[in-house]
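Escalation from tier 1.

The customer reports that the assembly of two entities below gives different C-alpha cells on two consecutive runs. Tier 1 could not reproduce it. I'm attaching the input and our single run for tier 2 to review.
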Amino acid sequence: MCKLHNKLLSNRLVINLNPKILEFKVEQIRKDFPILQQRIYNKSLVYLDNAATTQKPKQVIDIISEFYTKYNSNIHRGVHFLSEKTTLAYENARESVKNFINAKHEHEVIFTNGTTSAINLVAFSYGEKFINENDEIIISAMEHHSNIVPWQLLCERKKAKLKIIPFFSNGELALDELEKLLNEKTKLVAVNHVSNTIGTINPIKKIIEISHNHNVPVLIDGAQGIQHLEVDVQDLDVDFYAFSGHKVYGPTGIGVLYGKEKWLEEIPPYQGGGDMIKSVTFAKTVYNDLPFKFEAGTTNYIGAIGLASAIKYIEFIGLENIFNYEKQLLDYATTKLSTIEGLSIIGYAKEKSCIISFVLDGIHHFDAGMMLDKMDIAVRTGNHCTQPIMDYYKIDGTIRASMTFYNTKEEIDYLYDSILKVKQMFN
Amino acid sequence: MTIDEKQKEIIEEFSVFDDWMDKYSYLIEMGNNIQLIDDKYKTDEYIIRGCQSDVWLYAEYVDGIVNFTTDSNAILTKGIAALLVRVLSGHKPANIINADLYFVKEIGLDQHLSPTRANGLLSMLKQMKLYAMAYQAKNS
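Tier 1 run:
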C-alpha cells in the first residue's frame, strides 16, 4: 500500500520540465523563472544577487501552490488521506535530498529552517555532548557570521576557545595553519564550502582529510556550495553538511543538516516538542529515532516538497552543465570588469565560484548599489555578514555581483556599462 | 521660512525631475554643498551607524533655536541627510518635535527612511527629534 502510494505520488511529482532544455540554453532556462520576465522601473531586471537568494523556477512555485491548493495537511500524525499524502511527499523529499548529496541513509537528512539553524543545531547538540572547558573549535577567517556566532555562543557557554584559520590576500585559506592549529584539544572544524563574499571554493575534501587525521570531525557550511558544485557527502567523508533551500532555487524557510548517523545518534536533541518524542510522561520522555529526534514541532513540510522540486530541476539541467556555464560567465565577468579603471576585485582564488566582490575608488558601495538599483541591476552591497573579511582587506564594504546559470553575458555587459555610468556620476 | 515652507520648496525643486538619475544628481549636489559637521565632531560620539553607510550628526542650541550639521561616508546618504538638515535646522525645539516630514514621500525618497533601509537616516531623524526634546526639556 505504502509503496503504491509512493509510486503514485512520485509520478505526480514528476515536474513538467521544458523538453527543449536538453542542452544548456540559457534563454530557454530563463523562461522557467517567472520573476526574470518582469520589468522593474520599466526595464528588464538584471538579478545579480543570487548569493543572497536564488530565484525560483516555475516548477517549484507550481508544486508549492499545488500542495497548498490540494493536499495541505499536517504530516506524521493524521490517519486521513491528505495527511498520508503530504507525509509521503515530505519523506520523498528527504529521499531526494539523500540522493542529491549521496548520503548513506535517509535519516541522516534533517530538515531545518536553513543553514543558520542547521549550524546552530550542531553548535548546541554537539556542543552539549562533546565540548568542555578549554576545548577548541576551529573556524576560518572567511566565514559568514552564521558560522562564527553559533560557535562563539558555544565557547561562551562552555568556556571553550575559538581558533581561526587565516587566509591569503588572494582569498585562499592558509591550509598549513590548519595543521598547526589542530591539537588534542580540538573538537570540531567548521568552515564554508564557498565564501559568500569573495567566492573562494575551499578545498573541503583536503580540510576534512587533515582534520580526520587528527580525529576531529568537520562541519561544512554549504550555503554557497551546493547550488554550484556536486556534493557527495560519502566521498567527502564529511561529518556535517548544512545548506539552505532558498539558495538552491527552492523555497525560503527550509534547509538541510546532513549528519553522519553515528554523530546524530550520539548528540542530544536540539529543541523539544511534538514529533521528536516517542513517549512523554512527567517522569521521563523518550526521544524519537532519527531523523525525527531533530525535527521538533510542525516542520516546513511544503518547503521540503518545494526543495525536492528544486533539486529535480537542478538535476535535470545537470550540475556539471551549471558549473561549466557559470565558470565561463565568471571568467567573462572577471575579465570585463577588471578593465574598468578604479575597480578592484576582492578575492582572486584559483578555485572560485560565480561571485565577484569589488570596490570602486572614491565611491561608497552604498552609493554604487543605489545607483545600480535605479538601472535595474540587483546587486548586494555592504559587508555581506562577513565583517572579519572586511577587516582583513581594510574596507567597510563591497559591491557584490553574484551570478548563476540563468545570468547571461549580455547582463554582464550591461553591468559593465552601468558601472561606467556610476563612475561618471560620482567622479 | 517655516518647516512647512521649506518642505514645499523642496517638493517644488524636485518636481522638475522626471527621472531617478536627475534626482540622484541633485542629491549629490546637495550633499556636496551643505555646511558639513565640524571635523572635531566627526567622532564615534556623534555617529549614527547604519548597516550600509554611516551618518554624523551634531546639534547646537543657540537663542532658542536648534542648528544641525551633518556628514556621511556615502554621498547619496549625505544628500538626503542634507535635506533633513535643511528642513529641520534653525527651528525651535517644539516645531522640530511636531514636524511631519511629508516632503520625503512627496519627492519619492521615503524608501530611504523606511526601517528596512540600513543607511542610518531613520535613526538620524529620530536623533534630531531627540535632540529637540532634550533642549526643550532643558528650557522648561
